[in-house]
Fold this protein.
Amino acid sequence: MASAAPKDLPSVDRLLRDHAVTHLMARHGHAFVAAEARRLLEEWRQLALSGALPPQRLHELPSELERRCAGRLAPRMRRVINLTGTVLHTNLGRALLADEALQQVLACMGSPNNLEFDLARGERGDRDSLVEDLLREITGAEAATVVNNNAAAVLLSLAALAGGKEAVLSRGELVEIGGAFRMPDVMSAAGARLVEVGTTNRTHARDYQAAIGPDTALLMKVHTSNYAIQGFTASVSEAELAPIAHAAGLPLLTDLGSGSLVDLSQWGLPAEPLPQRMLADGCDVVTFSGDKLLGGPQAGLIVGRKDLVQKIRKFPMKRALRMSKLPMAALEATLRLYLQPDRLTTDLPTLRLLTRPVEQIEAQGERLIEKVTAAVAPRFAVRAAAMRGQIGSGSLPVETLPSAGLVLTPRLPGKRGVGRALDELVTALRGLPLPVIARVQGDELWLDLRCLDEAREEPEFLAQLPQLREALA
């Protein structure tokens, strides 16, 4: 069949006058639709020149233009359903904001607000004041300041307190976090000279004492929340290290990374070091994250001794790393939830998901199994199964949670084609209007249901199953 010729294509003006296109300009405006029409016609003109444009496709121009306009305006950042089994998934946005935080963000973002205005005194204020009293009350710190993430909190603290001088840190705590972001690199960027002490698996108090010299600015501890060393190990706790630092007239800086503000062990979860405990043990400055176990927006929180926090706050780099109004509103609302600790497992999504009873998750799987089976049959078999999920991919990745879900197995006579079948399945799930992200384990796809909200997400998940069936047909 002959290809359509370039002369068969309409002009931009003619295409825009098509009755099937005029509604697009009413919706999106002439300039936007005309620009998309030019791009589309140029692409099809190149196809025509190469002899690859079937004549019957010409009548599809209006519908193709409408599709392109919708695609160009569609958001790139979208909601997904997290069935990976990882509650605090780094690639899926980590902590979910509480309803109170969402309401606070909406209320403050759509109108002027007192981000840097003191309502009591009627003059310029400090945005840190919006959350400092809350952080002081919750942690017992003398002072607090916040920046846009925990890496920034560590960078700023080191730059302000150890710039041009030495910071002493155990070799076993030279961690790397996501994106090849390494603690030695952070120190270098902050202008601090790293002094490594001890060995990878064993560091003693005498190692820190021997490393202190005239150029030493501080001693540092880093909580290794993203890996664990087992076996023949030794480390120095903050309670042991603080007297060593103070005897030398030095501050002790501790980075907790995912630091929680409540004792997780009361719900049967792995205990994490608390800023409150670190301060009580003698730490002078403690940094931790807002969007991990704390359950709030991305933020870096710095609490500790008043004179040191003030020095950090006044350091020039602080302005470049400060929090904007959106996360600040969400952080304040999240911290207020901690004033009512008995309600945290209800009001804070992170703790609600982490403490969700396995029996409830199993019951959800029993509700879903028949409809999921109907959507993927006959290509896949479905069974309910016990699972082990993760608390976080970057925070507590070695700690697992008992969970439950559905396992989808390709129906094939042998191993051949299993990988292709699973690829098609995960692609179909990602391609749904509300993408579903699961995990491939061995030769199966696991849908861990711990994070599938029963009230909102379960009905949305079920409503998409007919489209999944069509994609797999």
Notes: The radius of gyration is 28 Å. The mean pLDDT is 94. The chain is about 40% helix and 20% strand.
